[in-house]
Write a structure and sequence with these properties.
Largest sheet: 7 strands, antiparallel
Shape: globular
Distance between the termini: 9 Å
Mean pLDDT: 84
Structural class: alpha+beta
Strand content: 15-25%
Number of domains: 1
Low-confidence stretches: 175-189
Strand order of the largest sheet: 5-4-1-2-3-7-6
Order of helices and strands: EEEHHHEEEHHEH
Length: 189
Amino acid sequence: MPYTLWSHGRLVGHTELDIPCVQSHIMQGFIEPTAVGRPLLADAAGVPAVCAAHRRAQKQSGRRENNSAEMEAFQRACDRREALHLELRDEDGNGVAVEWIQVNDIQSDPFADLDDDDDEELDEELQAEIDATIAEWKSRFEGEEWKGEPEPDPRWETMQYHCMVYLPGSMNREDWGSRGFEDSRDERD
């Protein structure tokens, strides 16, 4: 189904929200921006670039905490994103209830040049907890037939913007990660 993304009455772009998701409370797709929407999408996806710039400054200075100028830059980026008040509409122009719309610039990786090898080692207790969680998650799929890798989608290489739409109630879900890898779009159709 075709959807449109809007900001204050301005058409930002079009999306099919046709990428299969593991979780039924999330829909995702690529955004075909309009001329008006392209600069708005840059603001919608701009917070990670600010975070990467802060991380670079921290690494260069050897400090681990943010300073006030970095926090102000981060807040301004968040404010620009939130000021867009992104809205999703269906093919009939009706608003779609969402909890959150996340826009990603998939042609830009602001963290690409950052080396995270200086991360602290996890303590044994935390590592054991992580290992147990992974083992429990893997056990859910024991005995299921692997359906193979999906066909590669060339849009990952050609499109600039990707969105994830979090449906109502998704930000307070207790069952995150409790579902299998089915194509959850069937539940929404």
